[in-house]
Design brief:
566 residues, alpha/beta, six-stranded mixed sheet
C-alpha cells in the first residue's frame, strides 16, 4: 500500500526562471524508511515541503501535478490538517521549540487542535522519543540531541503516519546521532511509522534505511533498496554523494586488483569484515605523527577561566571551572566533544562575546578585557555555525566590505574585490547571502570572517548541513586560506574534517580538556574514545577491525595499508 503518491509534480519558486521540481513521480510504501539524497540545490527539501502542504499553501509559486499523503490530496487540505498526516522536523529544528518546558512544548500542537487528551498525547510522544522523565524541565536545559528529539516529539504527538526529517544529525555528535536514529528505527519498526530522511551521511543510510531515492536536477533519478543504491559508486559520486567509506575502499581495492570485480561491495563495517578478510595489513612507511609544536609564541591563553550560565531554577550551569589552555601561533586546531561540552562557549570567550566569572584570557600576550572591540576584531574573527547570521546587508559585496568600511580600512573596495575572487563569489556578489545555497553561504561567511585579515580564525561547525562535495569544497578553501591566516581553530563533529585537516586535536568533556594531541594520540586511545563518545571515521574503524596496528584516517590510507591483497 502506498502512503505517498506523487504524480507529475512540477514546482517553481516565485521569481525563478526554471522549476526546482520537474515532473516528479514517486511512490512510497507504508512502513518504508526512505533516504532522499542528492547534491545541495537539487530539490530535496522542496520535495518534502510539498508533503506537509507548506508548498504551495504557505510558500507560493507555480505548482502543478498531484501529491497524495495517506489518501489526502495536499491541494485540498490546509497545512494544519496535513500536519496530522505528515510530521516534519526541520533542519533548523530549534525554531520548532516554542514553549518553556518539555511537556508543554511536546503537547502544544495538540492543545492548538483543542484535543482533550493533549497532555496525554504529549507524554506518550516524549516516551516514544526517549524523553520520559524530562517533562517538567526547561527546554533550554536540553542538549542539542535532546532538543532535536523534542522537536520530533512535537510532530509525533499529532499521530501522523509519515515523519519527515531534514538533515536530522547534521549538528549532532555521534552519540546523539545514534540516539536519533535509534528512536526513528523504533518508530518505524514497532509503531509502523513511515520515515523519510534527507541525509548526507551514507553510513547511517546503510545501517538504518530500507530504500534510497536519488534526486538530480529536480527529478527522481531512481529509487532502490539501500544496499543496491549505495553500491552505485559512480552514479552517486556524479551527483556529489559519496557512499560509505567502506564501500569506497572496496571499490578502490577492486580497481587495484586486490578484490574480484564480481564480489558485491560492502556497505557497512560488518560486511567489510567478510569482504576484506583475505587482505593482509602492510605496515605504513609513513613515520608516526610528531606531537604538536610548542616552540611558537602563544596566540590565546586561558588561565583559570570559569564560566557559568544563569538558570531559571536551581544553581547556575557551570560550563568551565578553572580552564587552562594555550593555543599557539600557527596551530591548526580541531576542537571536538559532545554537544554541550563547551566548544562554542570557548570560542565566544576568545572573541569577547562572553566574559569569564573568574580567570583571565590573553590574546597575543594582552588581556582580552583590556582590549577594545575594534582591536579584537582585527586580531581574531569568529565565523558562526549558522552562516546566515553573518549577513547583515542586502548583498555579499556589501557584507564582505562592511567591517572594513566601518573600520576605515584604506582601499577597502580593492580588498573586497580580491576576497570575492579568492572565494569564487564574483558571480554572487550582488545576491543576498541569506538566499544562497549552503556551500555558497559558507564561502561567503569565510570571506566576511577574514576581511579584516585576522591572525586567528575561529570556525564553528563549518561543514554542518553540507553534502560531501560541498564539504570538500570548504576543505579546499581552508587549505587555500593557510597563507591568509596563521592560526585556525575549528569546532566540529565532522571526524573526516578533523582527520584530514587538523594538526592538533583538543577534546572537551563537561568543560574540561580531557585530551590534547595528534590524530594517533587521540584516536589510538580506545578508553578516551569510549569515555567521550568520539567516533572516528568509518574507515578507521574498518582498519581496526582488520588489524589493530592499522591507523587509517582516509580511504587512501586504507588502500595503501591493505591494497596488496593476501
Amino acid at each position: 500500500m502506498n502512503i505517498i503518491e506523487i504524480e507529475g509534480l512540477t514546482y517553481t519558486y516565485p521569481g525563478a526562471e526554471t522549476p526546482i521540481l520537474d515532473h516528479v513521480n514517486l511512490q512510497v510504501e507504508k512502513g518504508d524508511f526512505l533516504a532522499i539524497v542528492g547534491n545541495n540545490g537539487c530539490g530535496k527539501s522542496t520535495l518534502c515541503k510539498t508533503l506537509n502542504g507548506l508548498i504551495p499553501h504557505f510558500i507560493t509559486g507555480e505548482f502543478s501535478g498531484r501529491v497524495l499523503v495517506d489518501g489526502v490530496n495536499t491541494l485540498e487540505a490546509d497545512v494544519g490538517a496535513l500536519a496530522k498526516k505528515a510530521g516534519y522536523v526541520y533542519q533548523d529544528f530549534e525554531n520548532q521549540i516554542v514553549r518553556p518546558t518539555v511537556l508543554d512544548d511536546a503537547s502544544y500542537a495538540c492543545l492548538n487542535y483543542a484535543m482533550a487528551d493533549y497532555e496525554k498525547r504529549g507524554k506518550e510522544a516524549l516516551a516514544l522519543c526517549g524523553l520520559e522523565g524530562w517533562e517538567q524541565d526547561y527546554v533550554w536545559s536540553l542538549s542539542g540531541g535532546q532538543t532535536h528529539l523534542l522537536a520530533l516529539a512535537g510532530a509525533v504527538s499529532l499521530g501522523p503516519e509519515v515523519l519527515i526529517l531534514d538533515e536530522p544529525i547534521a549538528q549532532l555528535d555521534p552519540g546523539h546521532a545514534d540516539r536519533i536514529y535509534g528512536v526513528l528505527k523504533e518508530l518505524n519498526e514497532k509503531h509502523g511509522k513511515t520515515i523519510l530522511v534527507i541525509e548526507h551521511h551514507t553510513e547511517y543510510i546503510a545501517d538504518y534505511c530500507k530504500h534510497v531515492v536519488l534526486m538530480r536536477d529536480g527529478k527522481i533519478a531512481w529509487k532502490l533498496p539501500a544496499n543496491e543504491a549505495l553500491r552505485r559508486v559512480g552514479e552517486l559520486r556524479e551527483s556529489n554523494i559519496f557512499p560509505p567509506q567502506v564501500t569506497l575502499a572496496a571499490d578502490g581495492l577492486r580497481r587495484r586488483g586486490a578484490l574480484p570485480w564480481e564480489q558485491a561491495l560492502p556497505t557497512t563495517v560488518e560486511e567489510g569484515k567478510a569482504a576484506f578478510s583475505p587482505l593482509s595489513y602492510r605496515e605504513n612507511p609513513v613515520p608516526p605523527e610528531a606531537a604538536p609544536r610548542r616552540e611558537e609564541e602563544p596566540a590565546v591563553e586561558f588561565r583559570g577561566v570559569s564560566v557559568s550560565y544563569r538558570s531559571v531554577k536551581g544553581e547556575p550551569r557551570k560550563i568551565f571551572a578553572g580552564l587552562d589552555l594555550t593555543i599557539r601561533r600557527g596551530d591548526k586546531v580541531a576542537l571536538i566533544g559532545s554537544n554541550g561540552a563547551g566548544k562554542s562557549t570557548l570560542m565566544k570567550l576568545m572573541v569577547g562575546l562572553l566574559k569569564p566569572s573568574e580567570g583571565e584570557i590573553f590574546l597575543n600576550g594582552d588581556s582580552i578585557h583590556r582590549k577594545r572591540t575594534e582591536d579584537l576584531s582585527r586580531q581574531i574573527s569568529l565565523v558562526y555555525q549558522n552562516p546566515e547570521q553573518m549577513f547583515i546587508q542586502d548583498s555579499i559585496r556589501a557584507d564582505v566590505s562592511f567591517a572594513m568600511k566601518a573600520r576605515g580600512v584604506k582601499d577597502y573596495q580593492r580588498r573586497t574585490r580580491q576576497l570575492l575572487e579568492r572565494f569564487r563569489l564574483e558571480d554572487l556578489a550582488e545576491r543576498d547571502g541569506r538566499l544562497l545555497s549552503g556551500g555558497q553561504m559558507r564561502r561567503a561567511s569565510l570571506a566576511i570572517g577574514v576581511a579584516l585579515d585576522p591572525g586567528i580564525l575561529l570556525l564553528d561547525e563549518p561543514t554542518a548541513n553540507l553534502d560531501i562535495a560541498t564539504r570538500r569544497e570548504i576543505m579546499k578553501t581552508l587549505e587555500d586560506m593557510k597563507e591568509i591566516t596563521g592560526t585556525v581553530m575549528i569546532a566540529t563533529h565532522d571526524m573526516q574534517l578533523v582527520c584530514q585537516w587538523a594538526q592538533r586535536i583538543v577534546v572537551l568533556k563537561n568543560g574540561r580538556v580531557v585530551a590534547d594531541g595528534t590524530r594517533d594520540q587521540i584516536f589510538g586511545d580506545r578508553a578516551l574514545l569510549e569515555e567521550v563518545g568520539i567516533r572516528p571515521p568509518e574507515i578507521f574503524s574498518m582498519g581496526q577491525a582488520l588489524d589493530k596496528r592499522a591507523l587509517c584516517y582516509t580511504v587512501e590510507e586504507f588502500l595503501d595499508s591493505f591494497g596488496e591483497g593476501a
